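anyone seen this seq b4? input:
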Amino acid sequence: MKYLVILNENGQKYTSLAVGLHGDSIEELKVVAERDYPSMAYIEADSVLHNEICQQRAYWNGEKVVIEPLSDEEIEAARVNALNTERAGYENELHERLKVAELQGDPALIASIRDEYVAMNEAYVEALKGDEA
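predicted toks r here
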């Protein structure tokens, strides 16, 4: 598929026009771009280039798509978010198992699930410190 990618002042994708959707040719898309986005730059793109420029941290530098790397802080935030998501899922599972064990009146199973919960929390704290749990 062919696209005309409209760029903002930073070279990031503002919007895209697609051949077959917004016009029958790149030339028709250029007319639309010049009419609707007169102060913005645009580039012609195939599907590969379009996918690259659509990435969140991507911009056009005049010659190619550049994707900014994540900062250390962003990487750490993503790691903590992944740990929180994993922990929440496991915690929900333990809560459900605990409800069933309580309904069954099984003290050994209840104690086992509570031990798992404590171990999960300890592993979570260690993982937050950056150690493998």
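The chain has a mean pLDDT of 93. Residues 72-104 form the longest helix (33 residues). kinda curious what u guys think
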